[in-house]
Amino acid sequence: MAEPLIIRTPEDDRLPDKRQVAASFSRAASSYDSVAALQRSVGNALLARLPGDLAPRRWLDLGSGTGYFSRALAKRYPHSYGVALDIAEGMLHHARPLGGAQAYVSGDAECLPLRNACCDLLFSSLAVQWCADFAAVLDEARRVLRPGGVFAFSSLCVGTLQELRDSWQAVDGFVHVNRFRDFIDYRRLCASSGLRLLGLERQTQVLHFPDLRSLTHELKALGAHNLNPGRPGGLTGRARVRALLDAYERFRQPQGLPATYQVVYGVLRKTD
Question: Which of the chain's ends, N or C, has fewer CB atoms near its CB within 10 Å?
Answer without folding.
Answer: C
